[in-house]
Amino acid sequence: MDWLNAVVQGTLLGGLYALFAAGLSLIFGVMRLVNIAHGDFIVLGAYLGLSVTAILGFHPLVALIIVVPSMAIIGYVLQRAVLNQTLGKDLLPPLLVTFGLSVILQNALLEIYSADPQKLSAGPIETTSFSVGGLSLGVLPALTFMIAVAVIAALQWTFYKTALGRAFRATSDNQEIAQLMGLNRRHIFGLAMALALGVTAIAGIMLGIRTSFDPSIGGGRLIFGFEAVIIGGLGNLWGTLVGGVILGVAQTVGAKIDPGWQILAGHIAFLVIIAVRPNGLFPRMDG
Amino acid sequence: MNISNLHVTRSSSASKIAAVIGALVLIILIAAPWWAGRADMRLMGELFLYLALASLWNFMAGYAGLVSVGQQAYVGFGGYMLFALTMFGGLHPIGAIALAGVLGALIAVPVALLIFRLRGAYFAIGTWVIAEVFRLSFAQISALGGGSGSSLPVGIVKSLSSSRAGREHLSYWLALAAAVIVIVAVFLFLRSRSGLALTAIRDNELAAGSLGINIWGTKFLVYIVTAALTAMIGALIFLQKLRISPDAAFSVNDWTAFVIFIVVIGGIGTIEGPIIGTLIFFVLRETLADLGTIYLMVLGVVAIIIMLKAPNGIWGLIRDRFDIELFPLSFRVRQSDPSNRT
């Protein structure tokens, strides 16, 4: 029963990791960009949530209505002003520019909010639980998981059922021809980054409600998100959810064996999967 | 124009002058214990170790296209090997540094086999995962102090030299030697047959492959050599610090972010770039360090602007303007008799 509990809790934790990963998966799918600053944007989302709750007195989940659009605007402006200039055959510029962004963001957050750990207070839902078949599940982890499923379903729908998604897929397949068909790829990339950072804002708020955070934790969150994307297979959004769940389960089961092993077990699961299936479990495109 | 007057050469007058000046500077630097103060020597020692790390990262990223953000794995590994081999193996610190390099190469083999499966940017983050695995694993070893780390016992420190001045001079010379060895090794590698293959891969991987160059093998060799040398630099760094902890040993900011900024600002894919970048980095650090976090933000902004506006860095700008090369790597066609100019 303890082991079943670890697996179920890990699955719910995987929802949070899938939220970390969804933005990464989306921008890689559309423009082959790997954003090294992604983890720092998750932390930025959490801090924006903190400011909104502190200034306006909103519940963190209500704060989403301000934080999500703010992050989306940041994403659009960032893509148009900086990141679009880095896209091309050479992969070094986007990598190094987002690496520079990561250092800037981290230190800017440190300057504004100090290094003190912070937490978003969401009231009773943080601690309430319900029981299912003898297992006790937290309301917050269950809610996070449901949000993750909803976000991924919404992204999937956007990608395959809307005009915007068609534009995303067209630019992803062939930028030049998409351009000839009247799509402005710079604008499309801006929208993709806006959508990705909007999702990242949700990830940041859910992270901030679940645990305490400080400006230095971005790198670790990036790695979890990245592992979920690779395990699930590039370009496959539902795969990303599965990847997050595998990572979450590996961590909780690792922690069950020895508390010091929690994070390490997740990394080892990732390394085992790339040793066995280098393209992840359900790849849709080539790296 | 008489074709017999033309010949192909690597050296140029700029490279010959640079070699003479370089030798003079080296002699002056070797003599530093007789003219520099303790604080200056400490700073210069640190500068040489950063120069070595930057040259190695540039060798991997600028020439082999292996963009790693996880070189702290080998810095920390080397540091921990120094502590483990001296404390439990009873080795002399210098012997431990050499052995740390060998062990670094050995551990890099399975790591490379695993992460070479990831391509491009995903390779970069894969190297970071490896560094995290190293950090978390060393934090589990209670003999080495676990998560809080440990200090090098006094007896081992004294085995280097019984006087403080002797130790300071020795660690300065070791750092200088490390930087010189790394730069010379990279230079000689690039002039060799494998170096030619590497330059071809850098310029066009597909074309290089179709000419029969073993791309995987060449990159693998570069990765292993870099890992070995990085581990030795790591051992030297922690011989200077005398204290190690997982967070300091495997710090992504200290051992990778700064190094990447140095290379990008100086000029990636050139031997001169990391040298210029290191000098600029230390000038910026010594003048702006009081600003704390602002200084790091400035560094990040400078690196982004350089990457966008001058992707070949400061050395790239100088090279394009004056067409000079201090380390003679490329071949040029020259006339043997300048008076015969047509």
Element-by-element helix/strand order of chain A: HHHHEEHHHHHHH
* Main sheet characteristics of chain A: 2 strands, antiparallel
Helix-strand topology string of chain B? EHHHHHHEHHHHHEHHHHHE
Which residue ranges of chain B are poorly predicted, with pLDDT under 50 across at least 5 consecutive positions? none
Portion in strands of chain A: under 5%
Average pLDDT across residues of chain B?
A: 86
| Residues in helix, % of chain A | over 70%
Most extensive interface between two protein chains, with residue counts? A-B, 41 and 41 residues
Basic shape of chain A: globular
Mean pLDDT of chain A: 90
Shape of chain B: globular
Q: Enumerate how many helices of chain A there are, as a single number.
A: 11
The strands making up the biggest β-sheet of chain B line up spatially as 1-4
Short description:
The complex is a heterodimer of chains A (287) and B (342). Chain A has 287 residues and is mainly alpha-helical.
Description:
The complex is a heterodimer of chains A (287) and B (342). With 287 residues, chain A is mostly helical. Chain A has eleven helices and two strands. Chain A has a two-stranded antiparallel sheet. In chain A, a hairpin with a 2-residue loop joins strand 1 and strand 2 (135-138). In chain A, helix 2 packs across helix 3. The termini of chain A are far apart. Chain B contains 16 helices and four strands. Chain B has helices spanning 13-30, 32-35, 38-63, 72-87, 93-115, 120-140, 154-160, 164-191, 193-203, 205-210, 215-241, 246-249, 252-266, 272-288, 293-309, 313-322, and strands at 6-9, 150-151, 243-244, 332-335. In chain B, the strands form two sheets. In chain B, strands 1-4 form a two-stranded antiparallel sheet. In chain B, strands 2-3 form a two-stranded antiparallel sheet. In chain B, helix 3 (38-63) packs parallel to helix 8 and helix 14 crosses helix 16. Classes of the chains: A mainly alpha (287), B mainly alpha (342). Chains A and B meet through helix 4, helix 9 and helix 11 of A and helix 6, helix 13 and helix 15 of B.
